[in-house]
């Protein structure tokens, strides 16, 4: 069954603990944490301090999506704060292999992220070294944007390579995922769907998560 990773970017930060407990009770598989630095993306969100604060609130893996320049500088701090998965953007990592190894050396599962305009070919060489590939279906920076269909087609290519190369990384999709777009992602081979506004902008989060899962069937 597809895993849902609610993005706390669309949660009410004044009651973040309760917002996380709510989606955990509602069937979330991961908590997706969007870290933005105001340089790599035009928005600033949260740092290791918040990851540390939410770590005791949930049993779920914290899926930390770094949308920052020079991620190597901050990976140890996010690992120490309790991240279970750290994903870094291909576009932000001139020495991607080193960055992926740094994440693993810090005891965290590494993943690589592709912006909508970045071809899948650019991460083919790193696939044996990652536990996750995150396909962005919006340009990162904000929640609530529309799904970019052409970006989703990369999922299919990644799923093919995974099979050919006999690998088992998860394919995650992030941006504009809702009951209309979820099935496109899972039909192409996605395992994990990030959903920010489609979960947190709904009154009943359990229903919101179930309806996305049901939409993929
Ligand atoms: C976008 C973030 C996403 C965002 C998704 O930059 O990486 O995780 O929160 O939000 P929705 O699901 O509303 O597109
Ligand atoms: Zn994200």
UniProtKB/TrEMBL annotation:
The record's keywords, sorted A to Z, are: Carbohydrate metabolism, Isomerase, Metal-binding
Q: Where is the active site?
A: 34 (proton acceptor), 174 (proton donor)
Does the record carry Cytoplasm as a key word? no
Per its record, the protein catalyses: D-ribulose 5-phosphate = D-xylulose 5-phosphate
Highest taxon of source:
Bacteria
- Pathway noted in the entry: Carbohydrate degradation
What Enzyme Commission number(s) apply to this enzyme? Answer: 5.1.3.1
Gene3D superfamilies (UniProt xref): Aldolase class I (3.20.20.70)
GO-annotated molecular function? D-ribulose-phosphate 3-epimerase activity
Is the keyword Ion transport assigned to this protein?
no
InterPro entries xref list: Aldolase_TIM, Ribul_P_3_epim, Ribul_P_3_epim-like, RibuloseP-bd_barrel
> Where along the chain is a divalent metal cation bound?
32, 34, 65, 174
Which residues are substrate-binding?
7, 65, 141-144, 174-176, 196-197
Which cofactors does the annotated protein need, by name? Answer: Mn(2+); a divalent metal cation; Zn(2+); Fe(2+)
Cofactor comment text: Binds 1 divalent metal cation per subunit.
Q: What class of enzyme is it?
A: isomerase
CDD domains registered for this protein in UniProt: RPE
Give the record's family classification.
Belongs to the ribulose-phosphate 3-epimerase family.
What's its job? Catalyzes the reversible epimerization of D-ribulose 5-phosphate to D-xylulose 5-phosphate.
Q: What is the protein's name according to its record?
A: Ribulose-phosphate 3-epimerase
What lineage is this protein's organism placed in? Bacteria, Bacillati, Bacillota, Bacilli, Bacillales
Task: Tell me the name of the encoding gene.
Answer: rpe
């Amino acid at each position: 069954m597809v895993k849902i990773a609610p993005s706390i970017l669309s949660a009410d930060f004044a009651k973040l603990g309760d917002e996380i407990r709510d989606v955990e009770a509602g069937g979330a598989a991961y908590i997706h944490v969007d870290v933005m630095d105001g340089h790599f993306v035009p928005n600033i969100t949260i740092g290791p301090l918040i990851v540390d604060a939410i770590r005791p609130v949930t049993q779920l893996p914290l899926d930390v999506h770094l949308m920052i320049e020079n991620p190597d500088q901050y990976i140890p701090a996010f690992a120490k704060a309790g991240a279970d998965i750290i994903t870094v953007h291909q576009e932000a990592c001139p020495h991607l292999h080193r960055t992926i190894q740094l994440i693993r050396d810090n005891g965290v599962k590494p993943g690589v992220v592709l912006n909508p305009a970045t071809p899948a070919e650019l991460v083919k060489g790193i696939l044996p070294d990652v536990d996750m590939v995150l396909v962005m279906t919006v340009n990162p920076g904000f929640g609530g944007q529309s799904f970019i269909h052409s970006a989703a087609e990369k999922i299919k290519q990644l799923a093919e390579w995974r099979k050919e190369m006999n690998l088992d990384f998860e394919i995650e999709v992030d941006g504009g995922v809702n009951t209309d777009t979820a099935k496109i992602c899972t039909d192409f081979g996605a395992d994990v769907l990030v959903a920010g506004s489609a979960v947190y902008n709904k009154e009943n989060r359990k229903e919101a998560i179930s309806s996305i899962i049901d939409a993929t069937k």
